[in-house]
């Protein structure tokens, strides 16, 4: 039987490509070119499935150009690069990689928050520039993490992981805001208190953003929200670029309306707002919160599990739109979709 043609859109562990090749006729991208929209579309010609990352946009236009495409498997928990209603309307299964990256991403979010609070990047740059000539009582004084109030916007799996680290490891008071309130059983272990957004902004000593990106969460933090924060507060974003208005944040940091920020994600990344590159009180990392060898392997394997199950009559483990499945399986392709 002819094996289904599949695109692996970005470079990924060769073992994972080899595993996919046992099932599929794989076109891979070992040179790791970033495909622009026409190139992605050309590469998807005739493919039944695609292994993607956050850099590949799968929207109605792409889906309509490739009616044979049946599954798109994202190697990421976030899937704002997918138009899910468009996938669902066309019977295309979309999958992501939740859970396997939760603790790793929470580790990194917490580390970034600490780095901002204790001015680690700013002081390291000072040292590297050769400016460290004497000790001084007020040199790079920051704010305490232990015992402080940790504010979490977006209390999903990763947000709860950060809350656990703060409450159980550092004696922090946890306040949060989320679309829906956690159950008392989820709140109790970390003593999390549900508050409205304005209270969260006003009370947090360290605010961490872990909410998914959508049109509704675009610029959730802009000039007006930054103005509600304490001048001593820090802001950490490990969610998605676009949730923060980066231009407004750069102004707030330069004018010390908040003390510091730490960002792993940016509007229009990998470009970074030029003002953020010049303000000193911000820690900048290149979207690496899930980047440990073990976790990236698990993410790649889970994306491959989804692709293999979807196209070989199995049950994909982590579907985003399970409503396209029938008895847990992807129905046979329909012809003439458009
Ligand atoms: C990915 C992420 O590395 O999982 C996510 O949503 O942001 C990261 O873990 C990135 O999206 C690449 O796919």
What does this structure look like?
The chain has 338 residues and is an alpha/beta fold. It has 2 domains: 5-99 and 293-324, Rossmann fold (3-Layer(aba) Sandwich); 102-284, NAD(P)-binding Rossmann-like Domain (Rossmann fold, 3-Layer(aba) Sandwich), CATH 3.40.50.720. 35% of the residues lie in helices and 13% in strands. It is built from 13 helices and 12 strands. The strands form 2 sheets. A 7-stranded parallel beta sheet has the order 8-7-6-9-10-11-12, sandwiched between helices. Helix 1 links the parallel strand 1 and strand 2. Helix 5 (102-117) packs across helix 7. The longest helix has 19 residues, at 293-311. The structure holds 2-keto-D-gluconic acid (8YV). Residues 53-54, 75-78, 101, 290 line the site of 2-keto-D-gluconic acid.
CATH class of the largest domain: Alpha Beta
Query: How confident overall, as mean pLDDT?
Result: 97
Predict the CATH topology of the largest domain: Rossmann fold
- Count of DSSP H/I helices: 13
Q: Estimate what percentage of residues fall within beta strands.
A: 5-15%
Shape: elongated
| Element-by-element helix/strand order | EHEHEHEHEHHEHEHEHEHEHEHEH
Radius of gyration: 22 Å
Strand order of the largest sheet: 8-7-6-9-10-11-12
């Amino acid at each position: 039987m002819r094996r289904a043609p599949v695109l692996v859109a970005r470079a990924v562990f060769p073992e994972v490509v080899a595993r996919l090749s046992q099932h599929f006729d794989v076109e891979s991208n070992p040179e790791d070119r970033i495909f622009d929209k026409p190139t992605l579309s050309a590469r998807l010609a005739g493919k039944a499935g695609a292994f993607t990352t956050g850099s590949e946009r799968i929207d109605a236009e792409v889906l309509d150009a490739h009616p044979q495409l049946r599954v798109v498997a994202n190697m990421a928990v976030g899937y704002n690069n997918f138009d899910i209603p468009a996938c669902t309307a066309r019977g295309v299964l979309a999958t992501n990689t939740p859970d396997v990256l939760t603790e790793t991403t929470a580790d990194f979010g917490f580390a970034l928050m600490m780095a901002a609070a204790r001015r680690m990047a700013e002081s390291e740059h000072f040292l590297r520039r050769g400016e460290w000539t004497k000790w001084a009582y007020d040199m790079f004084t920051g704010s305490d993490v232990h015992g402080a109030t940790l504010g979490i916007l977006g209390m999903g799996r990763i947000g709860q992981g950060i809350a656990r680290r703060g409450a159980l490891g550092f004696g922090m008071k946890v306040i949060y805001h989320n679309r829906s309130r956690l159950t008392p059983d989820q709140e109790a272990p970390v003593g999390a208190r549900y508050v409205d957004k304005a209270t969260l902004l006003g009370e947090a000593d360290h605010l961490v953003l872990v909410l998914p990106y959508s049109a509704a969460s675009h610029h959730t933090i802009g000039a007006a929200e930054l103005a509600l924060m304490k001048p001593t507060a820090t802001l950490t974003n490990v969610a998605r670029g676009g949730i923060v208005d980066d231009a407004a944040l750069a102004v707030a940091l330069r004018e010390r309306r908040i003390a510091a920020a730490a960002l792993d994600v940016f509007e229009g990344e990998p470009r970074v707002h030029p003002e953020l590159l010049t303000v000193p009180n911000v820690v900048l990392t290149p979207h690496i919160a899930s980047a440990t060898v073990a976790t990236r392997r698990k993410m790649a394997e889970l994306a491959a599990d989804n692709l293999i199950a979807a196209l070989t009559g199995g049950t994909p483990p982590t579907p985003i739109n399970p409503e396209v499945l029938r008895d847990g399986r992807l129905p046979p392709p329909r012809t003439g979709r458009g």
